[in-house]
Amino acid sequence: MSLLRSRIIPLSIVTLSLIGCGTIETNMPVENQAEVSVIERSDAPTDNPVEYAIWQAEQQPTEALAAPFYLHAAKLKAVAQSYSQAQQLLEDHVINVDFNDRFDGLLLYSRVSAAQNSPLLAIQALSQARELPVAELPQNRINLLTTHAEVMTTLEIWPSVVRNRVKLSTILPPTAQPENEMLLWSAVQNLTDNELSYLKTTNLPLLPGWLEISRILRNQDLNVDQQLQQFNRWQVNNPSHPASINPPADFKIMASLDDQLPNAFAILLPMSKELQTASSAILDGMLRQYYTNTGKRPRIDIIDTDQYEDFSEAYQTALDTEAEIIIGPLRKQNVARLPSLVTDIPTIALNQLDTMQAHQNLYHFSLNVDDDIRELMSFAKQEGAVTSAILAIQDTWALRQSDQFQRLAEDSDTPVLESLSYEDTPLGRQRAIKSLLQIDESEARISSVAQWTGQSIETTSRARQDLDYVYYVGKMDNAKQIRPLIDFYFANDIPMLASQTLHDGKPSSNTKNEDIERIIFTEVPALSQQPSKTNSPYVLQRLNALGNDSYLIASRLPLFTLVRSAKLSAKTGIITLNEEGIFNRRPNILTYKKGALVDAKQEYRESEAY
Fold first, then answer.
1. What are the residues whose beta carbons fall under 8 Å from the beta carbon of 101, sequence distance 6 or more?
2. Which of 68, 82, 118, 500 is 20–30 Å from 402 (CA)?
3. Torsion angle, CA of 209/212/213/216, rounded to 10 degrees?
4. pLDDT > 70: percent of the chain
5. Terminus-to-terminus CA distance in the chain, angstroms?
6. Crossing angle for the helix pair 207-218 and 177-190, nearest 10 degrees?
7. Is it the case that residue 216 has pLDDT exceeding 90?
8. Element (H, E) at 598
9. What InterPro entries does its record include (predicted)?
C-alpha cells in the first residue's frame, strides 16, 4: 500500500487561506457571465443564500450556465466550514464543467479537499488548473502558486513551500511581499539540514540568499554576536535581496539583545547516584557547546541535586549563585516541584510531566517521545497513510509508549485499528502478526468455505487491506523478527514506523538488509549520519545532544520569548517554543536501505509539480 493518501488540516487555517487569497466572494458571480440569467420568481428561497444559489443553478438550461451558481454556493459552504458539502458541489457541478470560472473552481476544490484530508485530490486539482490556458494570466499564476504553497504548508512539505514562496516573491505586488517573505522565511527555518542541502541544487533567483542566512543561524559554532556580524556582512554583499532590505524578525530581535543575553547560568543535575551517567552525558554536551563558542562566555555554576535531601534547597543554591537562567533539574519528581519554586529567574527543566500547565518563567526541554510520534504521524499523513495499528513488546516502557501513541492518535483523529502487545518468542510473534493482519480470520473463512463445499480449497490467506502502517514499539533486534513475518503474510507494502527508542545501536553483522528495510524511525540529527563518530551508546549520544541544545536554548531564550515563530536547527532537531512553555523538537526521519542509513523523506519525496 502506497504511503500517499491524506493529511488532517486545521479548519481555521483553511478558512483563513480562502479569505486571504480572495477566493471567497459574497455576491452572486454573474457580472462577468453575460449568458447567465438570474431568475426572479416568488417561489425562490431568497432567505438562504446557499439554497438560493443552488435554486438559480437548477433553473439554468445548461451545466455551463449553472456552474457559476454552484461555485458560489460552494464558496459559501467553505466559509461556513461545511467542507464535505462544498467538495461535493464542486465535484458534481463545477470542476469538470467547461466555463469561464473553472480555474477558480479548481483552486477552491484544492483547498476544500485539503480540509477533507485528501491531499492527492488537492494536488491533482492544482495540476488541472495549471493546464488551463487562463493559468498563464498574471493574477491566476499568483493564485495558483499561493494555493499550492498553502496546501504544501498544511502537509508540512517544506521544500515545496519554499520553492513556491520564492517564485511568488518575484511576481507579487509590493503590498503582498512582506507577508510572503515572512511565510517564506518560516518555511526555510522549518527545513531539516538534509532538505536545505537538497534545495541548494534548485536554480531559483533569491533562493541562495534565503538559504545562506538560514545557514548562519544554524551554525552552532557562532554566538549571537558572531551570527549578527556574518549577517551584516551578507547584507553588505547582497543589498538588493529582500532579506537584506527587510531582515527576518530573528535578526532584528538579535540585534537588540545585547543587554538581555544571560551572563550567568546555574545547572541542576543529579551527578552522584543512578542518573550520574545520564547527567554526565548531558553536562558534556553543554560544556562542549560552551567551549565551542569563542568570545565572551557566561559564568556557569554546576549543582549536584543528589547532594540535597530536599530539592528546594538545591534550587535555592542555584538562585544564590545569582544565575540569570537555570537549566535543570532532570528527575521528574523534582520537575514536579518547579511550579512552586520558580519566580523571576527563567528555568529550563530537562524533563516534563504527563500533564502540565503553563507557568511564567518555567520552560521544558526533553527527549520526550511525543515529539517523535507527532513527527511520524505528520510524515505518514503527508504520504497518504490514514489508518494505523500499534504493536509493542511487553516491557513496561514499551506499553507506556504504546499508550502515548494511542493518546496522540486520538488527538489528531488518526484511526487506530488495533493495539496489541506480544511475548517476544517465535510463537508469540507469529500469533501477534496473524491477529494484527487478521490472518486468522482469513484462515477461518477458507476453512468454512472448504467445509461448506466439501472440497479442499487451494488458496493463500491474505492480510487485511484497511491498514496503512504499524506503529512498532521495541528495539531493532525485536523489529527485525517482525518485518519478515509481516512480509510472509503478503503485507510487505505495510511500513513499520517507530520512535528513536527502536534505534538502539548499529545493526548486527548477521542482520539481513531486507529484515530492517521499510522500518521508518525518528532520530536526532546528531545521530543521523553513518557511521557514528563515537562508540558510546546511542542513548548517551542523544543525551549529549540534549545538553548541547539546552545550552543553545538558554543562550537564546530572549529570542524565543520575543519571536514566537523563532526556530533553532540543532542536534536534537528543529526546536520551537509553544505557548505552554515547552520546547518541541522535529527530529529526522530515517530508514535503512541496502544496509545504509538514509533519509526516509528522500525515499518518499513528492514529485516536482511546480
1. 29, 32, 33, 67, 68, 71
2. 118
3. -170
4. 86
5. 26
6. 50
7. yes
8. strand 596-599
9. LpoA (IPR007443), Peripla_BP_I (IPR028082)
CB contact set of 190 (below 8 Å; sequence gap of 6+): 156, 158, 161, 567, 574, 586
Looking at the whole model, is its pTM more than 0.90? no
Strand duo 596-599 + 519-523: pairing: unpaired
Above 80 in pLDDT, residue 574? yes
Q: What is the DSSP string of 302-314?
A: EEEGGG-SSHHHH
Phi, psi of 390 (to 5 degrees): -115, 130
Residue 551 and residue 544 in contact, taking contact as beta carbons nearer than 8 Å: no
Q: Inform me whether the pLDDT recorded for 14 exceeds 70.
A: no
Question: How far is Cα 164 from Cα 146, in angstroms, rounded to an integer?
Answer: 7
- What is the predicted pLDDT for the residue at 19? 33
List, in order, residues 6 or more apart from 51 with CB less than 8 Å away.
45
Nearest partner of 527 among 506, 513, 496, 509, judged by Cα: 506
Residue with cell 484511526: 415
List domains and CATH numbers for the chain.
11-155 (1.25.40), 264-367+540-577 (3.40.50.2300), 370-523+590-603 (3.40.50.2300)
Residue 421: strand pairing partners: 392
With a cut of 90, say whether residue 508 has pLDDT above it. no
Cβ atoms of 254 and 221 within 8 Å: the answer is no
Q: What is the model's pLDDT at position 277?
A: 96
